[in-house]
Amino acid sequence: MCVLFACSSVWGTKKCQTNNYCVTLHDGTITAEAGLCAVILCSFTSEVTPKRIIWYKCEQSKCDNVFYSNTKNDEVQSGFKGRVSLLEPDVSQKNCSIIISDLKESDSGLYQLRVEGTKSFTYTVSRASLSVTGRTNKCTISLSCHLYQPVLKPTVVIPPLTEGQESTLTCTAPGLCSGSQPKITWTWRKGGKDSQLTGNITAAKTENLTAVTQRHSSTLTFNLSAEHHGTNITCQVSFGGNTTREETVTLNVKCELEVIIAFLIGVLLSSIICCLGMKCYRYTLFCQLFLKDELWIMFSEVF
Length: 303
Description:
The chain has one helix spanning 256-276; strands at residues 12-18, 21-26, 29-33, 38-40, 42-45, 52-59, 62-68, 84-86, 98-100, 109-116, 120-133, 155-157, 166-172, 183-190, 193-194, 201-208, 214-223, 232-239, 243-250.
């Protein structure tokens, strides 16, 4: 899951190797969870128009290519091919920010920028630090300064449930990262045993929010009966990198009689309030309320 935090203040520190070659990267370590994604924010200045942006992953004294903006893709490490992309494809904008999808714990390390044009320059003055873990429940991705770290669980939305009616539950996967589409599955149990949702229909949906963010969801539609009351329904979301998250909800199904009784109580209370609210010495009050099949309630009081 990518969590973006923003405000008007500067999101990183600008460091210069020479007066005309500077790079701005996020301060501190970017942390994220395996199977999800990370954004490395970056901008640079140079005295020439850039034509290519290259990123290296460095370990000790060795740096390996993980991204080329347009050419030499055969030189990129095989484990990074197809997983790294620029947030701004137009390199002339001098925005070197990248997004890494389908994270692996082995992606942890230091990332270094190189820009090529009529002249080439490697920005060794500053490196971005990325930490990927499969044990934490939180993912942090920096876009500015206010940090928010929600627990990575799917969100299950349940409408009011009434016996005899069709109902649709919606499960939304955590995270807005592009990359491999997660697998969303539904399971249901009652009393420790598998329950049946006869005639259930599931449908998956992917919504593109931006060029690099997507929202994945699934719906479960079925006809409700009284037997479904108390059933535990679980939505499980499986990402790449063997990362799985799930959320379980319990169905609270109301029978038609309960709905009718609740409606009658509401009508009665409304009628009492209506009558007590009238103040006069002598009056005849008719509170006419429509109640299923033209049922009228009349209150009359004379004093």
